[in-house]
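Hey, quick one: can you model this chain's 3D structure?
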Amino acid sequence: MAHPEFQVSSGKDDKFYFNLTAGNGQVILSSQGYKGKEGCENGIASVKKNSSNKKHFERKDSKGGQYYFVLKAANSKVIGKSQMYKSNESSENGIQSIKTNARKAKVHYM
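Sure thing. Here's the predicted structure for all 110 residues.
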């Protein structure tokens, strides 16, 4: 089984993105695009800092009846967005996974 990690990559738009993956390799949080690698690294640091506070998770419903959440920084800016989940319970499990995995996750550059 793999370890939780932040996978950093650059997109076709020359921006940097991260995905936080759980030990099973499943993506549990994805970032916005950052203009530079340093901004992306600051985003990762913000996830590590803010993921332990349940008030920073905002639960949402999609128009298609699925569930997802966003993680916000103390300034209320969105740091990352989850995948879509079929049930609210699965979405809550995703939040718990971030709380458990984010702080110890290593950064891997793709």
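One thing worth noting: The domain at 5-109 is CATH 2.30.29.80 (PH-domain like).
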